[in-house]
Amino acid sequence: MNLETPANALLFDRNHIWHPYASASSPPPCSLVESAKGVYLQLAGGKQIIDGMSSWWAAIHGYNHPVLNEAIRRQTEKMSHVMFGGLTHEPAIELARRLIDLTPPELNYVFFADSGSVAVEVAMKMALQYFHAKGQTCKRRFATVRSGYHGDTWHAMSVCDPVTGMHSIFGDSLPQQLFANKPQTPFNGVWDESEMSNITELIEQYHSEIAAFIIEPIVQGAGGMRFYHPQFLQCLRKLCTHYNILLIADEIATGFGRSGKMFACQHASITPDLLCVGKALTGGYMTLAATLAASKVAETISSAAPHVFMHGPTFMGNPLACAVACASIDLLTDNNCVPARIAEIEQQLREGLLPVRHLDAVENVRVLGAIGVIEMKKTVDIAALQPAFIENGIWLRPFGKLIYTMPPYIIDNNELATLINGMVNVVENCAFQQKKS
Ligand SMILES: *Cc1c(COP(=O)(O)O)cnc(C)c1O
């Protein structure tokens, strides 16, 4: 078969390639992307569409960025990869320095991982090794809130929401973790301290078994695109400190400006003991993640036998990925224009999306930083909506009842208007269809 025609290439893909959360035998349709530049994806057949997803929170500076391209090109000419055991290199050192500078002073140790899920596994292993080193070997479980998402690997999966996550399939094979109610008060809501009673009870009852509490700060992403009140995090930080539980902040989705602050923990001015970053770390160019550990965690782990942290992926600290991550962080922090741009994006998303909250089919509209969410009353038909989005010149990938966007920060006002209008158009249309049925 000649794979050079788009139709044949797509047919081969359909017959042989597994896509995320998809059936092998009857997969949903896929679009063929030929290239991408700025906020645009170039589809086979000539259509250009605006990427409203930043390729799952990652491509914050858009595609084919000259500065990021150059960083990769330069590094390729030096070396694409060397093992990290016993060897080190400037890109990793430079990246660690930037991450330590950007995060609170207690977080002084960086462990590079190859993907977000692995960074979560690493944080969880660190928590267990920390209590192992302290001789508190009863502390072996993890607690979290419902509606969370922390990745698809084994232990990461065990702390995903037990209903919308994969617990029903993997059941008893998964480690059994402890789940508190999801945060209730919205980001801008009136804080109600009584909200903490459920989580407090859980922690009071089980603290002697809990090594760490893992949570996505402020924004619960793939578990429901919910934005919760900063006081929740502050209270949780106090509880963890009081009960000798490590706090793992999973900033894999929120890190690098997405929620309006460089890290979402800053909305609550808290410092976690372990911090996971990923997704936007390389500006969406390559897979790379990192777990940052507080000095007390790293030094305790190293103080008792076996004195080492037991993890070391083959491609740890990949130089290409570290080099492009440094360049991406520099774009974010140079002359501080990105935070201002994110505030403008937030404002335009609010003005553009809030009007649809009055539609019968719409449950709620919420915006935080460069994230805009329309929650419908009913589960949306993704297969029906995706062609409608493409028709409107935009790329979105809804899930459940949620139609949402987190555009690249380089999007301009006109492109953002096209994105917002496309979303509104499709929602109005699908509201109309729901009414008819
Ligand atoms: C995407 C995500 C992960 C998993 O990252 P992968 O790179 O897909 O393994 C973990 N936690 C959060 C909050 C995420 O959004």
Fill in the keyword field for this structure.
16 strands, 14 helices, 38% helix, Aspartate Aminotransferase, domain 2, Aspartate Aminotransferase, domain 1, alpha/beta, globular, 437 residues, binds pyridoxal-5'-phosphate, 2 domains
Description:
By secondary structure, the chain is of the alpha/beta class. It has two domains: 6-64 and 337-436, Aspartate Aminotransferase, domain 1 (Alpha-Beta Complex), CATH 3.90.1150.10; 82-317, Type I PLP-dependent aspartate aminotransferase-like (Major domain) (Aspartate Aminotransferase, domain 2, 3-Layer(aba) Sandwich). The chain is 38% helix and 16% strand. The chain contains 14 helices and 16 strands. The protein has helices at 6-16, 54-57, 66-78, 90-102, 116-133, 154-158, 167-170, 197-206, 230-242, 295-303, 319-333, 337-353, 382-391, 413-436, and strands at residues 33-37, 40-43, 48-51, 107-113, 141-145, 178-180, 210-215, 219-220, 226-227, 246-250, 274-277, 289-294, 362-368, 371-376, 394-395, 402-405. The chain has a seven-stranded mixed β-sheet, sandwiched between helices. Strand 8 and strand 9 form a beta hairpin. Helix 4 runs parallel beside helix 11 (319-333) and helix 12 (337-353) runs parallel beside helix 14 (413-436). The longest helix has 24 residues, at 413-436. The radius of gyration is 22 Å and the shape is globular.
